[in-house]
Write a structure and sequence with these properties.
This protein is α/β, with parallel strands linked by helices. It has 2 domains: about 150 residues, Aspartate Aminotransferase, domain 1 (Alpha-Beta Complex); about 230 residues, Type I PLP-dependent aspartate aminotransferase-like (Major domain) (Aspartate Aminotransferase, domain 2, 3-Layer(aba) Sandwich), CATH 3.40.640.10. About 40% of the residues lie in helices and about 15% in strands. The strands form 3 sheets. It has a 7-stranded mixed beta sheet with strand order 4-10-9-8-7-5-6, with helices on both faces. Helix 4 packs parallel to helix 11. The radius of gyration is 21 Å and the shape is globular.
Length: about 400
């Protein structure tokens, strides 16, 4: 077995330097646990950034991949693909949607949504409508169109000129949004919970107000559910908590239990603007990925995972809220289900490292927001273990601040 030092040196030598990686080489996963190549065990509260909602190597997904890989891995979308058809049907029957376009990632799903919104406006005699309003702190992907849609300067820096036709307004601010809408607006694109932006939830009535505004003005409403969809909040889709539905929804991450896939779901009225030749993806909806997706959704809906996500998420949130009263440097705890953010008064990167030293993987976003994204199968006992470690780390910080 190649030693860790050599592996990391080869990684730094041969792989594009686009990630600030921790000095870990993960080689195996099962449930909520992962193991490094030196045999050390970690409880994973990152879950591949909300990809492994079912945990690592869920048996139903593994079996589906195994079975499909022995039958058919890839064919062109020139032909009908059985598991693709079945997955599209399952998504439509479980959502507001009527049609699904499959691709390979969240960025590609959002690209498809952007293209469809613009094409729909043109097809309906609204050629002057080309602008899409998105939110400050949003994150929609890393392609040129999706970084142009993303409302964070750090992702756009160095890539000017960006694509025209995007405006940014504050999340949860209807007054500013109303002023931003013009006769050129074709769509509003929003994450029902801003994940990468620091786990910001919609205020009461905000998504309903967006829906009403879009209906009144003939504007399309796009929900980016790439991170918060597929059960992460305790419902299959995060917008279900607010009782509203978009015209277009994007999915990816956990849709196929860890296999790369993306999907754009739309109503029949809107989807008809995508006719043959207007958009495509070579690997999108291939047999292997969609077979894994069928297994992942079936497990999510049949195994009581959504109910567990809500129950354990409430417990986790409550325990973290207890810390807010105990440690004055905790500014706020936010979230729903098993996407939870804890905002600190200082940089949180060292807490991530300290947790790693104790055998727990967590994430920090926006510099000072600890983000917790465990698999939805995480147990109360596993949550308690992390809470205990955090309590010890926070206690050390509190003692240091008081000395």
């Amino acid at each position: 077995m190649t030693d860790t030092k050599t592996l990391i040196a080869d990684s730094q030598r041969y792989i594009a330097n686009t990630y600030s990686r921790y000095p870990l080489v993960l080689v195996r996963g099962q449930g909520c646990k992962v193991w490094s190549n030196d045999g050390r065990e970690y409880l994973d509260f990152v879950a591949g950034l909300a990809v492994c909602n079912l945990g690592h190597c869920h048996p139903k997904v593994v079996q589906a991949i195994h079975d499909q890989s022995r039958k058919l891995i890839h064919v062109s979308n020139f032909y009908h693909i059985e598991p693709q058809i079945e997955l599209a049907k399952l998504l439509c029957e479980g959502s507001f949607g009527d049609r699904v376009f499959f691709c390979n990632s969240g960025a590609e799903a959002n690209e498809a949504a952007i293209k469809l919104a613009k094409k729909y406006a043109k097809d309906n005699g609204r050629g002057e409508r080309f602008e899409i309003i998105t939110m400050e702190r949003s994150f929609h992907g890393r392609t040129m169109a999706t970084i142009s849609a993303t409302g964070q300067d750090k992702f756009r820096k160095g890539f000017d000129p960006l694509l025209p036709g995007f405006k940014y307004v504050p999340f949860n601010d209807m007054e500013t949004l109303l002023r931003a809408v013009t006769p050129h607006t074709c769509a509003i694109m929003v994450e029902p919970i801003q994940g990468e932006g620091g786990v910001h939830c919609p205020s009461d009535g905000y998504l309903q107000d967006l829906r009403e505004l879009c209906h009144e003005r003939g504007i399309l409403l796009i929900f980016d559910e790439v991170q918060v969809g597929m059960g992460r909040t305790g419902r299959l889709f995060a917008h279900e908590h607010d009782g509203v539905y978009p015209d277009i929804m994007t999915l990816a991450k956990s849709l196929a239990g860890g296999v790369p896939i993306g999907a754009m779901v739309a109503t029949e009225e809107v989807a008809k603007s995508f006719s043959p030749g207007t958009h495509a993806s070579t690997f999108g909806g291939n047999p292997l990925a969609t077979a894994a997706g069928l297994a992942a959704i079936s497990a999510l809906l049949e195994d009581g995972i959504l109910e567990s996500c809500t129950r354990v998420g409430n417990q986790f949130f409550s325990r973290l809220m207890d810390f807010k009263g105990k440690y004055p440097f905790i500014k706020e705890v936010r979230g729903r289900g098993l996407i939870i953010g804890m905002e600190l008064e200082f940089d949180g990167s060292q807490i991530v490292i300290r947790c790693m030293e104790e055998g727990f993987l967590i994430n920090c976003t926006m510099g000072n927001v600890l983000r917790f994204l465990p698999p939805l199968i995480v147990t109360p006992e596993e949550v308690d273990k992390l809470v205990g470690v955090l309590d010890g780390i926070f206690g050390e910080i509190g003692e240091g601040a008081g000395s």
